[in-house]
Design brief:
One of its GO terms (molecular function) is cysteine-S-conjugate beta-lyase activity. InterPro entries: Aminotransferase_I/II_large, C-S_lyase_PatB-like, Class-II_PLP-Dep_Aminotrans, PyrdxlP-dep_Trfase, PyrdxlP-dep_Trfase_major, PyrdxlP-dep_Trfase_small. Its cofactor is pyridoxal 5'-phosphate. The chain folds into 2 domains: 122 residues, Aspartate Aminotransferase, domain 1 (Alpha-Beta Complex); 217 residues, Type I PLP-dependent aspartate aminotransferase-like (Major domain) (Aspartate Aminotransferase, domain 2, 3-Layer(aba) Sandwich), CATH 3.40.640.10. 37% of the residues lie in helices and 16% in strands. The protein contains 13 helices and 13 strands. The protein has an 8-stranded mixed beta sheet, sandwiched between helices. Helix 6 links the parallel strand 6 and strand 7. It is globular. The termini are far apart.
């Protein structure tokens, strides 16, 4: 069955956060990380069947979802996980916040790459923890974390290494060797690890493989909390069902205790959507990846011909990290908004001279946005 990712779904009059931001304005929204594609038909059908029951009482973690996810980890990563390691959450961001609060104490610090997805910084700020920033640097046209740069700042106060793999922004998929170096750094400095791997299914570069850092060794498992979700993969972010994989029973207990009375359980419809997506969504995902890969190539080619803009190759995600540092404007984000394209400001991630473009949209809309960007920079 072929899936039509060119289909236009008008979200401008819906409850879409992405499209509501620019309601009434001629600005194309290519910012927040959800796509404009219909979710897999299997997900829609499963939701319709569940809704037809007409009763929506309290739910509990789906045994079927647990079994599917355990099997998925085995088949994709040769990682043998146990059902009792799983903690289901109504979103991945709360997992970041819970990890910081469960694994660090007052006066202790976290450590994260920079630039980074904004909740990494906020989760530390919300908990009153200072964060050490490890710079992301370009090596062989890939954004990678420079741990050597922060070695002199490691005085024993940092307790949690927060990773993002694939990295957001930048789309880097860390190699096994890079992950082993990160694990060795964590071991040497006695750090726990929280690894956000929400984009692990969105690999665009042929031959690139995702490796969960916790799958590297028993030591990696015992010091790690791994966060995954079907939300970005299958465009069901509004149906929050995320999974924390915590092999260490003591850490898992701290995580669950920190959550108690604050973070609710997963919505029953979110369980239905997640189960259907993982069980029956692979054919749809393969077609989506083909479509996104072509969109990525289109963005890469066109951005790198626009005066003042550049981007490096990206292996994963549908989020292009665009360098606008050579553009003769004070605020690249505001500049492109005025040109009719709503991007994510690089300042949210830690570098105001960049912008992030979400190419998880129809090709026609993407071309329209790129045409506007090109006309704007050429008019300078």
């Amino acid at each position: 069955m072929a899936f039509n990712f060119d289909e236009w779904v008008d979200r401008s009059h819906s409850d879409s956060d992405k499209w509501h931001k620019y309601a009434g304005k001629d600005i194309i929204p290519l910012w927040v990380a959800d796509t404009d594609f219909r979710s897999p038909p299997a997900v829609i059908e499963a939701l319709q069947q569940r809704i037809a029951e007409g009763v929506f009482g309290y739910g509990y973690p789906s045994p079927e979802l647990t079994d599917i996810f355990v099997r998925r980890m085995r088949e994709l990563y040769q990682w043998e996980i146990q059902p009792e390691w799983l903690v289901f959450l109504p979103g991945l961001v709360c997992g970041l916040n819970l990890s910081v609060r469960a694994l660090t104490a007052d006066g202790e610090k976290t450590l994260a790459p920079h630039p980074i997805y904004p909740p990494f910084v906020r989760s530390s700020n919300f908990a009153g923890r200072k964060q050490i920033s490890a710079p992301m640097v370009l090596k062989n046209q890939r954004w990678v974390m420079d741990l050597d740069a922060i070695e002199p700042r490691m005085d024993g106060s940092a307790k949690l290494l927060m990773l993002c793999n694939p990295h957001n922004p930048g789309g880097t998929v860390y190699t096994r060797e890079e992950l082993e170096a990160q694990l060795e750094f964590a071991r040497r400095h006695n750090l726990y690890i929280c690894s956000d791997e929400i984009h692990c299914d969105l690999l665009l570069e042929p031959g690139v493989r995702h490796v969960p850092i916790a799958s590297l060794s028993e030591d990696a498992q015992q010091r790690s909390i791994t966060l995954m979700a079907p939300s970005k993969t299958f465009n069901i972010a509004g149906l929050g069902a995320s999974i924390a994989i915590i092999p260490n029973a003591e850490l898992r207990g701290r995580f669950i205790q920190t959550r108690a009375g604050i973070v609710p359980g997963v919505d029953i419809l979110a369980y239905v959507a997640a189960t259907a997506a993982y069980r029956d969504g692979e054919a749809w995902l393969r077609d989506q990846l083909d479509y996104l890969r072509a969109n990525r190539d289109r963005v890469f080619e066109r951005i790198n011909t626009m005066p003042g803009l550049s981007m490096t190759p990206m292996a994963a995600t549908y989020l292009a990290w665009i360098d606008a540092s050579q553009l003769p404007v004070d605020n690249p984000h505001a500049f492109f908004e005025q040109a009719g394209v709503g991007l994510s400001p690089g300042s949210d991630f830690g570098n105001p001279r960049f912008v992030r473009l979400n190419f998880g949209c129809t090709r026609a809309l993407l071309d329209k946005a790129l045409d506007r960007m090109e006309a704007a920079v050429k008019a300078l």
